[in-house]
Amino acid sequence: MVVLEMVATSPANEENIPKFSLSWENLTYTVKGGLFGKKGEKALVNDVSGLLTPGSTLAVMGPSGCGKTTLLNLLADRISSGNIKGNIYVNGKPRKSVSHFVHIFPKLS
What we know:
The protein is mainly beta. It is built from two helices and six strands, in the order ββββαββα. It has one domain.
């Protein structure tokens, strides 16, 4: 999986956008079993780290099936099964749940 490219942006209504950082370190997500009845664990995301700072954009790129959507689901706190290891921080503090920062975003249109 390739997780890359943060680019500074400057939206016209920048003062209305809340400022926060999101970072993750050594994020690993494994599930039991595998295809065709295989036993053991399969890593869907393996030891991924990253940082998003205010005013930056992140592009998550890679081939089909490499874990891009799974990584985004982990960061959005949408995964409730399997084994998740690593740390996710909002503004440098451990994220408790997605509700911790959902209210930061006003409806942007």
